[in-house]
Design a protein that fits this description.
Layout (H helix, E strand, L loop, with lengths): L5 H5 L4 H11 L4 H8 L18 H12 L6 E2 L12 H8 L2 H4 L11 H18 L3 E2 L6 H15 L11 E5 L4 H11 L5 E5 L10 E8 L10 H9 L3 E6 L17 E5 L15 E5 L12 E5 L5 E5 L22 H39 L3 E2 L7 E5 L6 H6 L2 E2 L1 E4 L2 E5 L6 H14 L38 H13 L21 H4 L5 H4 L11 H18 L3 E3 L5 H18 L7 E5 L5 H8 L3 E5 L9 H10 L4 E7 L11 H10 L3 E6 L11 H4 L3 E4 L19 E3 L32 H37 L4 E2 L12 E4 L10 H10 L6 E2 L6 E4 L7 H20 L16 H4 L10 H5 L3 H5 L11 H6 L8 H6 L1
Parallel strand pairs: 1-13, 3-4, 3-5, 5-6, 6-7, 17-18, 17-19, 19-20, 20-21
Antiparallel strand pairs: 2-8, 7-8, 9-10, 11-12, 12-15, 14-15, 16-22, 21-22, 23-24, 24-26, 25-26
This protein binds pyridoxal-5'-phosphate (PLP).
């Protein structure tokens, strides 16, 4: 046996388990199981063209070698990306800690209080710094957050009679170029007209519903918007502000001068540049818009005992659950990065942030002063961190390059220089050297910073921020390390037990895949650095695109989308561009089966399409006759079908090829939602089923950790005819020659996270990938057989097989007074995170074990489920205090002096033997969702409240 093989470490079941597992599922061989599972006409005959698998050691050597092809320049490019310092205590205890990075989205609040608190800190930090009432728990990047702000203000404009029908959105020319590109992408399909110009010339006329400003502007200037926003308000024009989070430490909060939405990135709060991401964007607004906020919001509520507990607020109203009524399709966001940025503020506190912001400002002022002494003209009268030197750039650029320095050259005579947290006096002296030489002047050296005063008095920050206890308590490393640990202990992640979340593919996130993310040779590259400086990245990204293109059976890939839902949107926009190029831009009907994930209809509406829902049969398959009828009815305007494969019901529908061809016959393109790609890799592919485009959730199938709800990477892979339309970037050349405008801020989206999927594919190779898919199917069918007779599995393929996941029906237990959530909560007492609850069918659970779980873990899970099934049997409908209804049971309950329940403490907390060896204690009792939604609190309590207590 080759113990160097990564597949051996990635896949859970041992060779020795295979026989008994196959026996349980009633198959002679793995091949037989696969033949009975995947329809004949879509099984791949040829093997994939992928390089031979590398061992972990070989991969790590390869990636270290490759990293040396990246050149670490000092970047003063700015434009929304500024290097910061990731405190090592956060790097080691969060970024490099599977207790944080392998956690799931905190739907099961009782075993997620740690990351919920960390996210509440993030929201508090954002509301404080922006001066707004509410913030969400992150968005994908600043530019998509800006587009979300535009969409929200458009959606709520009808509340204001005067603005009913207004469809113009004014954008200041000071906006970042990538944000403008995103606004273009997002505005047109939903009927918004963008008008870009100098904000001072804007006339506040009636056709406008809102405006967007950049603070400080792209040039670096700090505009005083106080009167301006007032005037906009007087004209009932809403105001969105994109603001630099660090600048807000010194600049007055946009909320204080009347902004309606404030967005930006928290990247510079310690998150590596990573050649574009992942980073957490923020989105803050007024309480009045709480029902329309995109993404997730964490809120305070209470548990059964009345103790404070956190959970995702307004959860059932999450945007994508509104389906085609949604104004946003955000699902996965950037939780891990939000946790880290929030922790950066916890560590530094208000005084630390003031120190950092002042240092940045003073450094910029010192540089401006020095360059003026050399005779240069600095054009920004006001600024926070960015100065603009007017000179012939051809005298500067090659000298800067020779010194390993990147500036941003806005035009032929403007050198824009953005200072960041890492900039030292040494760095300043280097820059002075470049400019001195260009001016043929004698260079000089500075040895200390002067005090800057380039912030207009009227906008200098007067309001306090981060006064809460949490931002004023953990400023030594020991204290922060323990605080992080305290939160981590409250959370169940993959380092404790299986998280069998159907549709989310919570597989192993191997350490070898993660290690390179900590390497500055990958971390410290600016996304707009000249492409020659990113040789390592360019090689890796191109290779990953090729690998994904091969795996999907398509012709091209774009890595730009930062989540599956963004991929859906990107794919549909590409389809629209294709139709338009053929003079068929009227094609706007999108067929979507009723079982689809809520992001599908939400994305279709954002792409300007009309959703027509098609029926499912009783067996859970697409009703082909209904689909045919609707495709034919709309044949003149059919744009696309969105189909998930295998279906969200966990079945490889055998009619899939018939389905895709009938869409083509009627002039449409087929979009395949690739969330279930883990059931396809190396056995079949989207090309083989006849699709034209798909997204892949690299954070599901390709091993990027879930991070508690992000980061995600959602590339789209497309057939030949769609390649020309792949998305572009306004600064760095990428995408197709007829490419659509940007889908994400960065040219290759979250490039740093792409390393993980690249590692995954390199180390598994074709053989390991195929095996992974086979074992994912085996593991699912093994659970199915073990639960047989205890739970009813709702759907199966023609030969009775599940795909890589299955749905079990929990609705019959209502007879015993038991709901599906009771089972989910009871699983916590057994040390397990619940599977997906009530998707795609209400009252059911969708179980997806993945290939990474061992037979022993699958058995423990099945034992737990069967034991719970027996408890359900015993549950008395009349008795509200049964063991399921009271779940989960906390340590405080167990150790309380009184015990008033009809079952024993042992039954409550240690129901099976394996539990006592590895007990996980939920930190709160069952949370009250409704109470929290009625009393919405989305920030930490102010310090006075702690003092009263
Ligand atoms: C996860 C998922 C999505 C959304 O993907 P994100 O990466 O969370 O945006 C879409 N469709 C299905 C079926 C999914 O499971």
């Amino acid at each position: 046996m080759n113990t160097d093989s990564f597949a051996l470490r990635h896949i859970g079941p041992r060779e020795a388990d295979l026989k008994s597992m196959l026996k349980t599922v009633g198959a002679e061989t793995m091949d037989q199981l696969i033949f009975e599972t995947i329809p004949d006409d879509i099984r791949l005959e040829k093997s994939l063209r992928l390089d031979t698998a590398m061992s972990e050691q070989e991969y790590l050597e390869h990636i270290t070698e490759l990293s040396t092809k990246n050149q670490l320049f000092k970047s003063y490019i700015g434009l929304g990306y500024n290097q910061g310092i990731l405190p090592p205590v956060i790097q080691r205890n969060i970024l490099e800690n599977p207790g944080w990075y392998t956690a799931y989205t905190p739907y099961q609040a009782e075993i997620a209080q740690g990351r919920l608190e960390a996210l509440l800190n993030f929201q508090t930090m954002v509301t404080d710094l922006t001066g707004m009432e509410l913030a969400n728990a992150s968005l994908l990047d600043e530019s998509t957050a800006a587009a979300e702000a535009m969409a929200l203000l458009f959606a709520v404009r009808e509340r204001d009679q005067k603005k009913n029908g207004a469809n113009k959105f004014f954008v200041s020319e000071e906006i970042l170029p990538q944000t403008l590109s995103l606004l273009e992408t997002r505005s047109t399909p939903i009927g918004i007209e963008l008008v870009v110009g100098n904000h001072e010339d804007f006339d506040f006329s009636d056709g406008f519903f809102a405006i967007m400003l950049q603070y400080p502007g792209r040039s670096g200037k700090v505009h005083d918007f106080t009167d301006y926003v007032k005037k906009a308000n007087d004209h009932q024009i809403k105001v969105a502000v994109a603001a630099d989070i660090l600048s807000l430490v010194m600049l007055e909060a946009p909320g204080t001068f009347g902004a309606d939405v404030v967005v930006g990135t928290t990247q510079r709060f310690g998150i590596p540049l990573g050649y574009g991401g992942p980073h957490a964007a923020y989105f803050a607004t007024k309480e009045a818009y709480k029902r329309s906020i995109p993404g997730r919001i964490i809120g305070v509520t209470k548990d059964t005992n009345g103790n404070r507990a956190l959970r995702m607020a307004l959860q059932t109203r999450e945007q994508h659950i509104k389906r085609d009524k949604a104004t946003s399709n955000i699902c996965t966001a950037q939780v891990l990065l939000a946790v880290m940025a929030g922790m950066y503020s916890v560590y530094h506190g208000p005084e630390g942030l003031k120190y950092i912001a002042n240092k940045v400002h003073n450094t910029a002022a010192t540089l401006a002063d020095s360059l003026e002494k050399l005779g240069y003209y600095q054009a920004n009268e006001t600024y926070f961190d960015t100065i603009a030197i007017k000179t012939d750039i051809s005298k500067i650029n090659f000298r800067a390059e020779a010194e390993g320095i990147n500036f941003y050259y806005k035009d032929e005579e403007t050198v824009s220089i953005s200072i960041n947290e890492t900039t030292t006096i040494n760095d300043i002296n280097k820059i002075i050297g470049v400019f001195a030489e260009a001016a043929s002047k004698e260079r000089f050296y500075i040895s200390e910073l002067i005090k800057g005063n380039a912030i207009p008095k009227r906008v200098a920050r007067k309001t306090e921020f981060l006064q809460n206890e949490v931002f004023n308590s953990y400023h030594s490393e020991t204290e922060l390390m323990r605080y992080i640990k305290k939160l981590e202990r409250k959370d169940l992640a993959l380092n404790h037990s299986m998280i069998s979340l159907g549709s989310c593919t919570m597989k192993l996130n191997a350490a070898a895949e993660m290690l390179p993310l900590s390497d500055p040779m990958w971390g410290n590259i600016h996304p707009f650095a000249p492409i020659e400086q990113a040789g390592g990245y360019q090689f890796m990204l191109k290779k990953l695109e090729e690998q994904l293109t091969e795996i999907t059976g398509f012709a091209g890939t774009s890595l730009q989308p930062n989540s599956g839902a963004q991929g859906e949107y990107a794919g549909l926009m590409v389809i629209s561009a294709y139709h338009k190029s053929r003079g068929e831009e009227h094609r706007n009907i999108c067929l979507i089966p009723s079982s689809a994930h809520g992001t599908n209809p939400a994305s279709a509406v954002m792409a300007g399409m009309k959703v027509v829902v098609t029926k499912a049969t009783e067996e859970g398959n697409i009703d082909v006759e209904d689909l045919r009828a609707k495709a034919e009815e709309h044949k003149d305007n059919l744009a696309a079908l969105m189909v998930t494969y295998p279906s969200t019901h966990g079945v490889y529908e055998s009619a899939i090829k018939e389905i895709t061809s009938l869409i083509h016959e009627n002039g449409g393109q087929v979009y395949m939602d690739g969330a279930n790609m883990n059931a396809q890799v190396a056995l079949t592919n989207p090309g083989a089923i006849g699709a034209d485009v798909c997204h892949l959730n690299l954070h599901k199938t390709f091993a990027i950790p879930h991070g508690g709800g992000g980061p995600g990477v959602g590339p789209i892979c497309v057939a030949e005819q769609l390649v020309p339309f792949l998305p572009t970037n306004p600064i760095i050349e990428t995408g197709g020659e007829l490419g659509i405008t940007a889908i994400s801020a960065a040219p290759w989206g979250s490039a740093l996270a792409c390393l993980i999927s690249y590692a995954y594919i390199c180390m598994l190779g074709e053989d390991g990938l195929k095996k992974s898919t086979q074992y994912a199917i085996l593991n699912a069918n093994y659970i199915k057989e073990r639960l047989n007779g205890h739970f009813n599995v709702l759907y199966a393929g023609e030969k009775g097989r599940a795909a890589h996941e299955m749905i079990i029906d929990c609705r019959p237990f209502k007879e015993n007074g038991i709901e599906v959530v009771d089972i989910a909560k009871r699983l916590m007492d057994y040390g397990f995170h619940a599977p997906t609850v009530s998707f795609p069918v209400a009252g059911t659970m969708m179980i997806e074990p993945t290939e990474s779980e061992s037979k022993q873990e699958l058995d423990r899970f099945c034992d737990a489920m069967i034991s719970i099934r027996k408890e359900i049997e015993k549950a008395d409908k009349e008795d509200e205090s049964n063991i399921l209804k009271n779940a989960p049971h906390t340590q405080a309950m167990l150790t309380s002096d009184t015990w008033e329940f009809s079952y024993t403490r042992q039954q409550a907390a240690f129901p099976l033997e394996y539990v006592s060896e590895n007990k996980f204690w939920p930190s709160v009792r069952r949370v009250d969702d409704a109470y929290g939604d009625r009393n919405l609190i989305c920030t930490c309590a102010p310090i006075e409240e702690y003092m009263e207590a």
